[in-house]
Write a structure and sequence with these properties.
Radius of gyration: 18 Å
Strand order of the largest sheet: 1-2-3
Order of helices and strands: HEEEHH
Structural class: alpha+beta
Number of helices: 3
Length: about 100
């Protein structure tokens, strides 16, 4: 099995530029916290991930994919304010 340092580095870097933090709990499970850029707003928090289930690069990739899907579902698509204003002007409404 990979060391916890390797697991953390792979998982945390997979979510850049978001702020991802992996914590090892006393029972040897992981807690993953994913925050928006700047770190003020929590996008996703998952507890109880079994480290023993993350024994390969493939299993870590599958975890990252599942977490990314959850973040995508919970995070609304943001349209930059200038693009919103442009669309409003084209449609004749105000942003």
């Amino acid at each position: 099995m990979m060391s916890i340092l390797e697991q953390r580095q792979i998982i945390e870097s997979a979510f850049l530029p978001l702020n991802c933090r992996c914590l090892v709990e006393a029972d040897d499970t992981l807690t993953v916290q994913i925050r928006a850029v700047g770190g003020e707003r929590m996008l996703l928090g998952v507890k109880g991930i079994q480290r023993s289930e993350l024994s390969s690069s493939r299993s870590i990739s599958q975890l990252v994919l599942r977490l990314r899907q959850q973040v995508t579902v919970q995070e609304p698509t943001h349209v930059p304010s200038r693009e919103r204003e442009s669309r409003a002007l084209q449609s004749g409404t105000h942003a």
